[in-house]
Amino acid sequence: MARVLKAAAANAVGLFSRLQAPIPTVRASSTSQPLDQVTGSVWNLGRLNHVAIAVPDLEKAAAFYKNTLGAQVSEVVPLPEHGVSVVFVNLGNTKMELLHPLGRDSPIAGFLQKNKAGGMHHICIEVDNINAAVMDLKKKKIRSLSEEVKIGAHGKPVIFLHPKDCGGVLVELEQA
């Protein structure tokens, strides 16, 4: 037993030292310039607006965040134009949107068929000029899921960027 523990400790130390190996550094852009001058565009990326979670049981999920974690939780908001019912969870510095399918054509229904327990659906980042962002991203060959900006759940213009062009993440841009 002592020999096994000694071998395990040696392996752990070896692994730890490999994890401690220097990582090549990449210099970040200077933050002394406004972001639009750095990127050469006329729009700026803003704060994280929300993380959207697809859930198979909206009431159960809302109760978890409200009763177990103590978060401020909205009532269920049906958004038939988007094919979802939403509960907004206020986290102070950002929000979560709990999404549940509303109707058979809901994009969330397909997501939940593949992910029975639910899971992260998308992130939403604010931009200061959504039309300029869309034009700039098209030039950069970033695809969107729709041809045009639409009005989102918060009553503001939004567009979704294709996850295959965004590191596997569905990204929603929302006008700040």
Layout of helices and strands, plus pairs?
Layout (H helix, E strand, L loop, with lengths): L1 H18 L15 H5 L5 E10 L3 H11 L3 E2 L3 E3 L4 E7 L4 E7 L5 H8 L4 E9 L2 H10 L10 E2 L5 E5 L9 E5 L1
Parallel strand pairs: 1-5, 6-9
Antiparallel strand pairs: 1-6, 2-4, 3-4, 4-5, 7-8, 8-9
Function: Methylmalonyl-CoA epimerase involved in propionyl-CoA metabolism.
EC number: 5.1.99.1
Family: Belongs to the methylmalonyl-CoA epimerase family.
Order of helices and strands: HHEHEEEEHEHEEE
**How far is the first residue's CA from the last residue's CA?**
61 Å
Main sheet record: 9 strands, mixed
What's the number of domains?
1
Give the C-alpha Rg: 21 Å
- The CATH class, by name, is Alpha Beta
Helix content: 25-40%
The CATH architecture category equals Roll
What is the percentage of strand-forming residues? Answer: 25-35%
Total beta-strand segments? 9
Shape: globular
**CATH homologous superfamily, by name?**
2,3-Dihydroxybiphenyl 1,2-Dioxygenase, domain 1
How many DSSP H or I helices?
A: 5
Structural class: alpha+beta
Low-confidence stretches: 1-38
The residue-averaged pLDDT reads 84
What name is given to the CATH topology?
A: 2,3-Dihydroxybiphenyl 1,2-Dioxygenase, domain 1
